[in-house]
Write a structure and sequence with these properties.
Blueprint: H1 25-32, H2 40-51, E1 57-58, E2 69-71, E3 76-81, H3 83-86, H4 90-96, H5 101-124, E4 128-133, H6 134-159
Parallel strand pairs: 3-4
Antiparallel strand pairs: 1-2, 2-3
Helix pairs in contact: 2-6
Length: 160
């Protein structure tokens, strides 16, 4: 899957004590609480999708990017992205970063770049990709669900 990067692959610098970053037990405890899967928005969306009668795989490792929800039968994948980690309103937020800017800007921009690569690769495999922000799920779950259900119903009608 390695492809040439349009604007060059972003290299994320590593934390090091020489660059002034120290890992404290308090920071370590805070960071350990951040979950990558089974988040509340994910669980809410999965519960709603299940209630609508659709069965799926979670964190499906056989597909690039390990989609949060994969409906193989419908060639549809759903990602529910955290706003900080995936760069929601990035131009505004980027300016507000105060500490360890060199690391965080590269880290988040690389995440955004990777999201685009994953979207492209999945589309090339014939998958439809949905990406929702966690805040969208928290505030407008029904709207997000309806977008997916409309797509799934369209596929079912065309297959019959």
């Amino acid at each position: 899957m390695p492809k040439p990067y349009q604007s060059g692959r972003i290299k994320v610098p590593r934390f090091s004590e020489e660059s002034g970053f120290y890992t404290t037990p308090e920071r370590s405890k805070i960071m350990s609480k951040i979950r990558g899967k089974n988040t509340k928005p994910e669980m809410a969306f999965r519960k709603a999708l299940w209630a609508a009668g659709y069965r799926y795989r979670i964190d499906y490792k056989k597909l690039i990017g390990k989609p949060d929800i994969a409906l193989k039968k419908y060639k549809t994948v759903i990602f529910i992205d955290g706003e900080f980690w995936h760069g929601h309103n990035w131009k505004t937020r980027k300016v507000k970063l105060k500490t360890n800017r060199e690391f965080w800007i590269a880290k988040i921009e690389r995440n955004m770049q990777r999201d685009q690569e994953v979207n492209t690769a999945l589309k090339e495999l014939g998958y439809t990709v949905f990406r929702f922000w966690d805040k969208q799920i928290n505030t407008a779950l029904e709207n997000c669900l309806q977008q997916v259900l409309k797509h799934l119903n369209h596929i079912e009608r065309n297959d019959l």
